[in-house]
What we know:
Elements (H helix, E strand, L loop, with lengths): L2 E3 L6 E3 L2 E3 L9 H14 L3 E3 L11 H10 L10 E6 L14 H15 L4 E6 L8 H13 L3 E7 L3 H13 L5 E7 L11 H8 L2 E5 L10 H6 L7 H24 L3 H10 L8 E2 L4 H8 L8 H10 L13
Parallel strand pairs: 3-4, 3-10, 4-5, 5-6, 6-7, 7-8, 8-9
Antiparallel strand pairs: 1-2
Amino acid sequence: MKYTHLGRSGLQVSRLCLGTMNFGPKTSEPDAHTVMDAAREAGINFFDTANVYGWENKGLTEEIVGRWFAKGGGRRGSTVIATKLYGSMGPGPNDTFLSALNIRQALDASLKRLQTDHIDLYQFHHVDRNTPWDEIWQAMETAVAQGKIIYNGSSNFAGWHLAQAQESARRRRFNGLISEQSIYNLLRRTVELEVIPAAQKYGLGLIPWSPLQGGLLGGVLKAQDDGGRRAEKRVQDLLAKHRDQIQAYEDLAAELQIEPGILALAWLLHQPAVSAPIIGPRTSGQLDDALAALDLELDEDTLAALDTIFPGHSPAPEDYAW
Length: 322
């Protein structure tokens, strides 16, 4: 396994992050434990979850991870656990967003579900435009002082939100954010405009989610031709819009003799600021496929060919101005 520092921090995480969103809704608890054991055996030490995961049964995914930790054997000590808050966890007006009150109650609830005394990376699942940063950071400073969290991260922030958060933390002489979790893949490259430049400026590690765009970059056309399982409707809708690009992409992958999903992950690992793409395997076999991306070196010709199929962005404002 390869490891890297998460942003400017001293925290070392595996170059792939195990996403747990499927645990519960799509992956049974025994199978989830098997996947986590296989990830740990492969050297993946970075797991990502959120308090809302479990969907109809919010909190279920954290509980599944917590019961895996409770098995012992060094599971908790060898894992950098990241979770998130923001989404509604109850009917009350203070059961959502990033008020100091909700931070306190959401954090304590996650600690209980995860069966741990601290969270390594506590992330804001979305920007809260109605809560002052001084209030958010004061609550986080308290949690750090109590030993309940170690680092903070963000998710789904714009570049200016990152700047706003970090400048507010700087005034308080607080560490602030060390990571940003954004959607980023060959098809969705908007973060290259401002989020990645801001992350680089402030020393934040980028944690891309949906690296295969819901399976669209995982060989969807080949799977259909082979009579495999039909993709979900949202993927089918995207495929209808981007079919020519996906066909060109799968043709390139076939020419290189690389599975499309592995190629998409390897491309992300070659991008600046990226610390660890989030993979969401439902089985140990899917995990093995993702691990192959770690050893794949893409040459300049291949990277240029991918940019031709999926044009990216230069940093703003040069991307759209002089």
